[in-house]
Amino acid sequence: MLALIQRVSHARVAVDGETVGEIGPGLLALVGVEPGDGDAQVARMCDRLLGYRVFADARGRMNLGLADTGGGLLLVSQFTLAADTGSGMRPGFSTAAPPDAAEPVFNRLVAACRARNAGVETGRFGAHMEVSLVNDGPVTFLLRA
């Protein structure tokens, strides 16, 4: 499981012009599910998303995680993160979990994060989404579970 996280001052995701998820300050996480991902990866990614220290403390150092700040978390499924880009000029997707396997894993991640943080929003799995954000920093990291 992969998550490209961005510290944001605002982020939103829309489907067919309708906002389906929106947060203020917090993290936008684009999540890619790989074959074989299961409960262990969900638990680890949840811990990392809520605890990864990318927010400034009183001294201006990145010492606080989302759980410390009470910020929002916008989870957006993105199978292209798991693409094979090692050769050629076109990505291969055999390294990404197929939708019927990825969706329940993604949903378990959403449920795990919501159980520990009330401010969790999502996109819509499998839909064509428009994601907009204001990256704060910019601060962007790629996490693996």
From TrEMBL:
It is found in: Cytoplasm. A motif (Gly-cisPro motif, important for rejection of L-amino acids) lies at residues 137-138. InterPro entries: Daa-tRNA_deacyls_DTD, DTD-like_sf. Keywords: Cytoplasm, Hydrolase, RNA-binding, tRNA-binding. Pfam families: Tyr_Deacylase (PF02580). One of its GO terms (molecular function) is D-aminoacyl-tRNA deacylase activity. Its EC number is 3.1.1.96, 3.1.1.-. Belongs to the DTD family. NCBIfam families: D-aminoacyl-tRNA deacylase. This is D-aminoacyl-tRNA deacylase. The lineage of its organism: Bacteria, Pseudomonadati, Pseudomonadota, Gammaproteobacteria, Lysobacterales. The gene is dtd.
